[in-house]
Amino acid sequence: MDLDNLFKTTSSSKDKKSTSIDLVVSDDSTFLQAIDELYAIEGFASPLKVDDIDDESWHKTNAEIKHVILDLRACGELVSEVAEISSR
């Protein structure tokens, strides 16, 4: 049975998925491990992880950043932090 026909996916849509990646910004290893487990359960590629949004390493990837997940649980100034990040 060809599952591509069943789910109506094509090889071009698979290639597109491989060029985009999610970015997770967190310094909490437990949170990052939970994110990895959830991505694996859903069948997604593991996201790119950085400790700080100002970390330049995520700019060096050739993949397109599709979603950004910010861990702002410990942020005291939530509104100002989000405003600063979104204005970049």
Automatic annotation (TrEMBL):
This is Chromosome partitioning ATPase domain protein. It comes from Vibrio harveyi. It comes from the Bacteria.
